[in-house]
Automatic annotation (TrEMBL):
Annotated transmembrane regions: 20-42, 62-80, 137-155, 161-182, 242-270
Compartment annotation: Cell membrane
Ranges for domain ABC transporter: 338-557
Listed InterPro entries: AAA+_ATPase, ABC1_TM_dom, ABC1_TM_sf, ABC_transporter-like_ATP-bd, ABC_transptr_CydD, P-loop_NTPase, Type_1_exporter
Keywords: ATP-binding, Membrane, Nucleotide-binding, Transmembrane, Transmembrane helix
Protein name as catalogued: ABC transporter ATP-binding protein CydD
BP GO annotations: cysteine transport
Length: 559
């Protein structure tokens, strides 16, 4: 099992899959031993056949061993790759759900500082960018130590000079790559920032398509996105240049080193101061000595890519969460009131939006929240919804037995000003609130929300597809559908933001009456400035200069 919390760094994530990576490195280590044995057997067979006058038949047992080593190495390599990839994919999948859960806990208020594009890029390309780091970079970094060390140990008793050449040239490669990598990291960071910008701008352009067309700025938006895509292309080419340069330098050092070993050993072979089998084995081992360095170099950019992506992911993980203490289970005892006690809240330090607010929302009472624009009505609702943490004070719910509940937000049904509808049929959208609801329940809540007549007038009734965000419906129809949906959940507390803002006078009357009916056995809180809903209010609260006060004269006026 993978632990889900803790150190949110590359090192911390690596520790979570240390078992998988350990298995991969162990299998790779066994493969390295088999490689040395395989080359030793091969050198002996060639020496025996060329200089020992042995017949091929006499070499059959050695040849069988050779085939065994080859097959076993292939299988071990496959198993090592599988272990590293499995661990990596499991980690990415668990990180994705962890990050999503964290963003749910942060909520829309905390997320406001991040653009949707940034978040989507971090969740998608960012997390995908970590996969090669764990699946390739880490195992290859370990193998870069294991295999060369084994080869050095094998070469030492065979030839001191070759040992010296390999031991001196080998470490030069990682040192040079670190130097190149230092410069490459800056380019990688730039590439990641450009990818974030590209993602955000593309999403902004899509979301604002209507406004851009209306203001005649569509071409500018297309040009801006194209410009960013081009910058991203140029930076990617710079990254490629660095990658090619790195591998060219590596090849240079590796070839030089192998040539030196060949020349030094070759000269002594000619002078008769060395035997062929040892010389041949050292020449076979020399390229293998550089092989893990080559593999490591090929995946070195994975580390830089992961470091750059990690910056964006860490920023999201660092957002403070506000909803971690919520229980998912609605309170079963009937709630009689929700009380704000000495509540203060704001978005910036020393700039409170609400100060020392005291108010009560009672069961069976439709409470109306009014106030001028920017007064803090939405802030009060965000506090009630648990999307914003109070700076001081608390909000509690009391049930019929007088018990106080601190975590009661799971009992809320919420209809925002712009409700979110998914791509699907009317019935599917309604069933988001209660997947088990039968068609009669859907009709019932639709009738209550004054939505039944327009749903039945749609070509396929409840089975009509309505597109993402309800593009095929009017603003008022979306609002009524959202009201029907929340009623299907039958919440104890109902909070609605301007529920009748988009309705014609007749529909407004019907929806206001439906909300009033819903308030008979619920705590209902409505933000509204005007309209029929005021006539049904039993409590009117005005948000003004950070305070919330009751306005009884509004009720008298309505009466
Ligand atoms: N996410 C935020 N970050 C910083 N300040 C915010 C944020 N949301 C709202 N504010 C500020 O808090 C104050 C109250 O805003 P709020 O949205 O609660 O007002 P409101 O009464 O709901 O207004 P409206 O009727 O226009 O929706 C405003 O000054 C607003 O600029």
């Amino acid at each position: 099992m993978m632990q889900s919390s803790g150190n949110k760094t590359l090192a911390g994530f690596t520790r979570r899959i240390s078992l998988w990576l350990g298995v991969a490195v162990l299998l790779g280590g066994v493969g390295a031993v088999l490689l040395v044995l395989q080359l030793t057997v091969f050198a002996r067979i060639v020496a025996d056949l060329a200089f020992g006058q042995h017949a091929l038949v006499a070499e059959m047992p050695a040849l069988k061993w050779l085939v065994f080593f080859l097959v076993a190495r292939g299988l071990l390599q496959w198993a090592a790759d599988m272990a590293a990839t499995q661990g990596s994919l499991r980690l990415i999948s668990s990180l994705r759900s962890e990050l999503l859960q964290h963003l749910f806990n942060v909520g829309p208020v905390g997320m406001a500082s991040h653009t949707t594009g940034e978040t989507v890029t971090a969740l998608d390309a960012g997390l995908e960018g970590l996969e090669p780091y764990f699946a390739q970079y880490i195992p290859r970094a370990a193998m870069m130590v294991v295999l060369p060390f084994m080869i050095l140990v094998t070469v030492l008793p065979l030839d001191g000079w070759s040992f010296l050449i390999l031991a001196c040239t080998g470490p030069l490669i990682p040192v040079f790559m670190a130097l190149v990598g230092y410069r490459a990291q800056a380019i990688m960071d730039r590439q990641w920032t450009q990818l974030l910008l590209l993602g955000s701008s593309f999403l902004d352009a899509l979301q604002g398509m209507t406004s851009l067309r209306l203001f005649g700025r569509a071409r500018d938006a297309v040009a801006a996105v194209a410009g960013m895509a081009d910058e991203y292309r140029c930076t990617t080419m710079s990254v490629m240049k660095v990658a090619f340069l790195t591998s060219a330098v590596l090849e240079f050092f590796a070839s030089l080193s192998i040539a030196l070993v060949a020349v030094v050993f070759g000269a002594r072979l000619l002078e008769g101061r060395a035997d062929f089998q040892s010389a041949f084995l050292v020449l076979l081992l020399a390229p293998e000595y550089f092989m893990p360095l080559r593999a490591f170099s090929a995946s070195y950019h994975a580390r830089q890519n992961a470091t750059a992506a990690m910056a964006g992911i860490s920023k999201l993980f660092a957002l403070p969460s506000v909803a971690t203490c919520h229980s998912n289970q609605p309170i079963t005892e009937p709630l009689v009131s929700v009380r704000c006690e000495n509540l203060s809240a704001g978005y910036e330090a020393n700039r409170p939006v609400l100060s020392n607010v005291n108010c009560t929302f009672a069961r069976g009472t439709l409470s109306l929240i009014m106030g001028e624009s920017g007064a803090g009505k939405t802030t009060l609702v965000r506090l009630l919804l648990g999307l914003l943490s109070p700076v001081a004070g608390r909000i509690v719910a009391e049930d019929v037995h007088g018990a106080i509940h601190a975590h009661w937000q799971s009992s809320i049904g919420w209809v925002p000003q712009r409700p979110c509808l998914i791509h699907g049929t009317v019935a599917e959208n309604l069933r988001l609130a209660n997947p088990q609801a039968d068609i009669e329940s859907l009709r019932n809540v639709a009738r209550q929300a004054d939505a039944l007549s327009f749903i039945e007038a749609l070509p396929q009734g409840f089975d009509t597809p309505i597109g993402e965000r309800g593009v095929c419906l009017s603003g008022g129809q979306v609002q009524r559908l959202a009201l029907a949906r929340v009623l299907l959940r039958n919440p104890q507390i109902l909070i609605l933001d301007e529920p009748t803002a988009h309705l014609d006078p007749v529909s407004e009357q019907c929806v206001a009456a439906a909300i009033a009916r819903a308030a008979l056995n619920r705590i209902v809180i409505v933000i509204a400035h005007r309209g029929a809903i005021i006539n049904y209010a039993r409590q009117v609260l005005r948000v003004h200069k950070g305070q919330v006060c009751s306005v009884p004269e509004m009720l008298e006026h309505a009466a």
